[in-house]
Structure formats: C-alpha cells, structure tokens
Amino acid sequence: MLRPRLGTDGRLPPSVPMGTVDIAFHRAAHGRPLPVVFAFHFDGRAPALDSVRARVAERAHRIPALHYRIARESGRFRRVDRIAVDRHVHEAWLPDDTDGSATSRLMLSRPMDTDDRPSWDVWLAHGPAGRHTLCYRTDHAFQDGVGAAYTARALLGDDTEGGPAPLPRRLPTAAGLAGSLGDLAGAFGAATAKPAFDGVSTGRVDVCHTDTPLARLRAIGRRHGTTVTDVYLAALSHSVRTWHLKETGTVHPPLPVALPMSVRAPGEEQAPGNRMVTARMLLPCDEESPQRALARVTAAMNRLRAGRRRDAMRLLLAAAPRSVGARVGVRLVHGRLVAGPVSSVNFGTALVHQGLAARRAAVFTSVASGIRSVVTLTSQHDTACLTVVHDEALRTAGELPGLWLAALLELERG
C-alpha cells in the first residue's frame, strides 16, 4: 500500500497493478480517457499562469498519484520520475462563461493526452471580468472523485489539510452482503425501464450547475431527521418526476441509479487508482410529494448504511479475479440498467489558492457505457453545487437544476 507522503527518491514502486474498478472504467470508455474534473470557481483577479505552474512544480513531486501513468496494454500504472510541468498546466479564455458551464464543457470535450505522461492536467480558465476557474483533470481509469479531491487540494491549495475524511474498513453485515449479491446478480438481468433516460445517445454532452447554501440542506435534513445526501437524492427524484411529467404528461416509474461510494481508507489518500464501489438504488420518482420521496430515500439509504454495503461490495469485488470483477463493474453502471451515477462528494473547507478562497467547487465526469446522465452534489465550506452532465439527446435536461431547487423549496415548506 502506498503511504501518503512518499517522494520520488526510489521508494515508489516502478509499477502498481490496476485495480478491478480501474479496469472497469477503462473498459467502459473503450480504452479512451474518461475525464474526471475538479473545478474551483473564484471571484477576484486571476493568478498568472507562471505562478500556477510554479505551485504545481513545487507540489507535484510530493504527490504519489501524480507520478504514475496508465500502461493500458499491461493493466498496470507505471511510474514516471520526471514531470514536465509546462506540459501539464494550461490556460483558456472563456469571457462569456458566466455560470461555469462553458469551462465544464471544455474540460469534458478537450482530448486528454495518452502518451507517456501521467494522465492529469491543470487548467486556469479566465471567465468574465473578475472571475476565473482552476481545474484539476484526470482519467477516471486512474482516479475517482474523492482521490481527485485529495490530489487537487495537495496540488493547488495554500493549506493542504481539510479534505474528505478517509473511511476505516469494517466488516459488512449479512444483510449488506445479501444486498450486494443482489446487485451483482441484477447486473446480468433484463434491461430496466427508465423512459426519461432511455433511447439513442449522441455521445456529446452538455453541463449545467446550480448552487445553494449547504446550511439549507442541513436544515432540511434536521427537520426531517435525515442527512444532506438523502435530501439531495429526494429533491433529485422529485425534479426528475416534474421534468418527465412536463415532457410527457406521465408519471415516471422509480428510477434506477448507481450510487458511488468511496472506500478510500486512511493511508490511501494520495495513492493512484479508484477506491470506490457502487450500489444500485431506486429514486422514488413515482411519489407525488417530495416529503414522501424523502421518507423513501431515507429508508433505503438507512438500509445501505446499516448493512455496510460499501464494505460488502468492496469485499466481494476483492474476492473476484480482476477480469471478472471488472466485467461485473461495467454492467453495474451501464445504460441498460441505470440512468447513471448519482454521487455526492464533500470537499471540506474551501480551497484557498494564493490567498484567494474558491466560492464553489464542482466535481464531475462524462458519460460512458450507454448512460445518458451523471449527477453530482459537491459540498465545499458553506456551498453545495449540483452538477448535471447529460447527453445532448436529453434536450431539456438543463431544466433539472432549477427543478431541484424548486423541490428543495417544497421540502422547506412541507
């Protein structure tokens, strides 16, 4: 296991095997890089590109994950000892990007290098006057969202502390193992009806964001005796219901989604590779009221937590040969069975870069393996950012963030 503070003085192993989830992402994207982006939005004067490069040059050699590239032909991560910073740090000008969506589209559409360099880059995107964005980008076959959070803070932050808390490993319960076995069996079952998200994909994506105070989600959670994540999922469920009803006049059935869960343990904060599993859950889009949707989401999430489902799936995938586990992993998050991943990442305290604190953070990835949407809630300090990445075939999916805010308002009133 890689320790978090290893340097490049010969103590990093020359190669590290790709894990089951790494290979699954590699297969889902058909060998092409699938970008994961952590974007930090700032109000204030942008730093000079040279100063960003200087920060990256100072920090990169201390971060183990940044010294490995994907050797796709061998199924391993191979160490790269010298990092050419000028080839990893770039600049873009997007003066009309008032909400950050144009920067997000650029990060998902801009090709990633697949040569002998480590598969990451940093972008300084200049927006309208007085606004800019710093982006850390990597390949999902190499790093998950929580791993990207640790790396982005260590690489760009004035203070490298304050990120997500790593999770100690625990033994799952019998109920948790049974639930995970059910998910694995379901991966080979019949396709699931999800009318709002079925159909032909274009392969081109759009991105939209919306912000709300994190205190608002916490207050709703306290009122209903539940968590921020549960409130987020219930509001998302009701927004899909409202959106589909408006489009078709019909009620959407419960929506199957993949719920990513981090299993990154203490000591793995800056190790390469994905440390995550998924569980399948149904969002109750058939519920008329967001309050009843919240009750059903809370009950389902409490069962996942009580059964320690993340530990159950971690153990099951670890017990299977990598090739078998990767095949199952691809099927668990495939458009035949789920609308897409629905994740939540708490970045922690605000990223401060050269004395300026980011006003919001957003982590997101693109679509693959037949899915047509990816939804993420990113929390940073006192702001929560909902990001919806969707295939352009879903023409009106840009309405979902506004409908999500409307569902939160109903939960506040109810």
Oligomer: single chain
How many helices? The count is 11
The major beta sheet can be summarized as:
5 strands, mixed
Contiguous uncertain segments of 5+ residues: 1-10
Mean pLDDT: 94
Q: How far is the N terminus from the C terminus?
A: 49 Å
Proportion of strand residues: 15-25%
Rg, please? Answer: 20 Å
Outline, from the CA principal axes? globular
Helix content: 25-40%
SSE-based structural type = alpha+beta
Give the helices and strands as they follow along the chain: EHEHEEEHEEHHEHHEEHHHEEEEEEH
Query: What is the count of β-strands?
Result: 16
Name the strands of the widest sheet in spatial order: 5-6-7-2-14
Topology:
Layout: E1 15-17, H1 20-28, E2 35-43, H2 49-60, E3 68-71, E4 76-79, E5 89-93, H3 101-109, E6 120-126, E7 131-139, H4 145-156, H5 174-186, E8 205-213, H6 214-224, H7 228-248, E9 255-262, E10 276-283, H8 290-306, H9 309-319, H10 322-332, E11 342-348, E12 352-353, E13 356-357, E14 360-365, E15 373-380, E16 383-391, H11 400-413
Parallel strand pairs: 5-6, 11-15
Antiparallel strand pairs: 1-4, 2-7, 2-14, 3-4, 6-7, 8-16, 9-10, 12-13, 15-16
Helix pairs in contact: 1-10, 5-9, 6-7, 7-8, 7-11
